[in-house]
């Protein structure tokens, strides 16, 4: 028996997810498995938050409708021709792939940052589900400016939601995928129903009426950033930068039979990031006409964005169920990814228990509404931090031979620390984050330049340092 077969057998007997071996052929999955997962993950909890937040940013109709078409298409191309292509060739998790390039010591820091950021994102989705459960309990909903929990009941609800989500995620990829396949049709139907009902409540009778909901745009709400066409294009493309150009979804597509499974992300982008964002924005547009919302605006305050009450106002208790499920289908795979990141740091601990740890961190984060209420800015930040590491993998895969560098350098040389990776990321991060701060540039505008800079620097530094060594 070969060493690979021995490792594979150990993985299976241990109930593992092939964290340190390529996924064997008998575990490969068809495109249908990914279709359900991506439709469920991206027509989900974040959509109930992001759609309304676009309205608070004062976008125009053209900026939103056309900008989302282009940005989401660029995201699909990134998944198909970068992430899925590399995932199917090597079939490693992101964390093991990076370990082979960076070395064990360096990748520990990345895995920790990656896992924690994923936990915060999952926490935001637990917050979303809690707003739905809070409707029948008549819990006071968090405001856009809130950072701390506002009641003991809120904390208890978040803990219960987080516990259920963590257990599902801890059962592994198969359970996460099956949960998404069951929940996603219900969520998609709910978004469509919410959109239709909201159009009726807004008295939309023509395309012109629909267009005029956003019109030429408006001033952003207090405390919010004004979004233009390019904000929408780049943000919708790079809001999942950590997953596609950042290569996090190597951990997902390593199970795919073919790279063409990457096209299934279009279900998430156009059902979720297009239809669902717009439907959620319509729900918020209805709320903005209410006396409560007008009171907030009259006091120069941004009206709260609470998905549970918005959906309940449109389709009743079905809306509550949909929001709860929507939070789950985003948080489940996100906690699963975070668990893989932590498992790479503590390989002797089972995937189940590290995922429970990740779920616990996410639940604590979900208690604090700031992660959900500032979701646009948080997602831009975490993509900016993590995406350049994906450039290391992409540039080595596509251009490494032309530059004459050794692939998987740390593994080949037994080096625990690849200085080329650290320098490439640090320099690109430092330069472009400073540009963002000094010139007040939105982070999504500098994410792609930072990604390209990191990849090029890695090739140049690796060629120089490897020759010396």
From TrEMBL:
<feature type="transmembrane region" description="Helical">
    <location>
        <begin position="441"/>
        <end position="461"/>
    </location>
</feature>
<feature type="transmembrane region" description="Helical">
    <location>
        <begin position="108"/>
        <end position="132"/>
    </location>
</feature>
<feature type="transmembrane region" description="Helical">
    <location>
        <begin position="182"/>
        <end position="202"/>
    </location>
</feature>
<keyword id="KW-0472">Membrane</keyword>
<dbReference type="GO" id="GO:0005886">
    <property type="term" value="C:plasma membrane"/>
</dbReference>
<feature type="transmembrane region" description="Helical">
    <location>
        <begin position="415"/>
        <end position="435"/>
    </location>
</feature>
<keyword id="KW-1133">Transmembrane helix</keyword>
<feature type="transmembrane region" description="Helical">
    <location>
        <begin position="152"/>
        <end position="170"/>
    </location>
</feature>
<feature type="transmembrane region" description="Helical">
    <location>
        <begin position="352"/>
        <end position="372"/>
    </location>
</feature>
<feature type="transmembrane region" description="Helical">
    <location>
        <begin position="227"/>
        <end position="246"/>
    </location>
</feature>
<keyword id="KW-0812">Transmembrane</keyword>
<protein>
    <submittedName>
        <fullName>Purine-cytosine permease-like protein</fullName>
    </submittedName>
</protein>
<feature type="transmembrane region" description="Helical">
    <location>
        <begin position="378"/>
        <end position="395"/>
    </location>
</feature>
<feature type="transmembrane region" description="Helical">
    <location>
        <begin position="61"/>
        <end position="82"/>
    </location>
</feature>
<dbReference type="InterPro" id="IPR030191">
    <property type="entry name" value="CodB"/>
</dbReference>
<dbReference type="GO" id="GO:0015209">
    <property type="term" value="F:cytosine transmembrane transporter activity"/>
</dbReference>
<feature type="transmembrane region" description="Helical">
    <location>
        <begin position="310"/>
        <end position="331"/>
    </location>
</feature>
<feature type="transmembrane region" description="Helical">
    <location>
        <begin position="267"/>
        <end position="287"/>
    </location>
</feature>
């Amino acid at each position: 028996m070969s060493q690979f077969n021995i490792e594979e057998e150990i993985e299976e007997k241990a109930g593992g997810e092939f964290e340190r071996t390529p996924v064997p052929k008998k575990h490969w999955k068809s495109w249908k498995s990914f279709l359900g997962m991506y439709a469920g993950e991206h027509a989900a909890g974040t959509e109930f938050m992001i759609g309304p937040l676009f309205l608070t940013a004062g976008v125009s109709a053209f900026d939103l409708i056309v900008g989302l078409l282009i940005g989401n298409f660029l995201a699909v191309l990134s998944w198909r021709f970068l992430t899925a292509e590399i995932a199917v060739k090597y079939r490693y998790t992101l964390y093991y792939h990076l370990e082979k390039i960076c070395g064990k010591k360096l990748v520990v820091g990345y895995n920790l940052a990656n896992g924690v950021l994923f936990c915060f994102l999952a926490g935001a989705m637990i917050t979303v589900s809690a707003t739905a459960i809070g409707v029948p309990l008549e819990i006071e909903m968090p405001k856009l400016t809130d950072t701390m929990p506002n009641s003991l009941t809120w904390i208890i609800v978040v803990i219960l939601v987080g516990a259920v989500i963590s257990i599902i995620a801890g059962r592994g990829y198969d359970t996460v995928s099956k949960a998404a396949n069951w929940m996603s049709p219900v969520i998609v139907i709910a978004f469509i129903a919410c959109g239709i009902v909201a159009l009726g409540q807004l008295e939309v009778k023509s395309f012109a009426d629909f267009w005029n909901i956003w019109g030429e745009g408006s001033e952003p709400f207090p405390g919010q950033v004004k979004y233009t066409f390019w904000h929408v294009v780049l943000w919708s493309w790079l809001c999942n930068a950590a997953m596609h150009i950042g290569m996090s979804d190597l951990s997902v597509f390593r199970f795919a039979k073919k790279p063409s499974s990457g096209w299934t992300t279009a279900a998430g982008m156009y059902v979720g990031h297009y239809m669902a964002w717009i439907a959620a924005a319509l729900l918020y547009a209805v709320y903005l006409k209410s006396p409560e919302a007008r009171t907030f605006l009259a006091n120069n305050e941004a009206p709260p964005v609470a998905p549970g009450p918005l959906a309940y106002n449109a389709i009743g208790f079905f809306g509550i169920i949909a929001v709860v499920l929507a939070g789950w289908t985003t948080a489940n795979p996100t906690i699963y990814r975070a668990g893989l990141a932590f498992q790479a740091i503590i390989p002797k601990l089972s995937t189940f228990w590290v995922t429970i740890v990740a779920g616990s961190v996410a639940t604590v984060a979900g208690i604090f509404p700031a992660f959900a209420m500032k979701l646009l800015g948080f997602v831009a930040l975490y993509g900016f931090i993590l995406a350049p590491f994906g450039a290391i993998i992409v540039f080595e895969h596509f251009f490494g031979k032309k530059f004459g560098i050794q692939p998987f350098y740390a593994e080949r040389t037994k080096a625990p620390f690849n200085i080329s990776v650290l320098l490439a990321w640090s320099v690109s991060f430092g330069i472009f984050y400073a540009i963002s701060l000094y010139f007040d540039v939105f982070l999504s505008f500098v994410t792609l330049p930072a990604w390209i800079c990191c990849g090029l620097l890695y090739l140049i530094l690796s060629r120089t340092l490897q020759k010396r060594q």
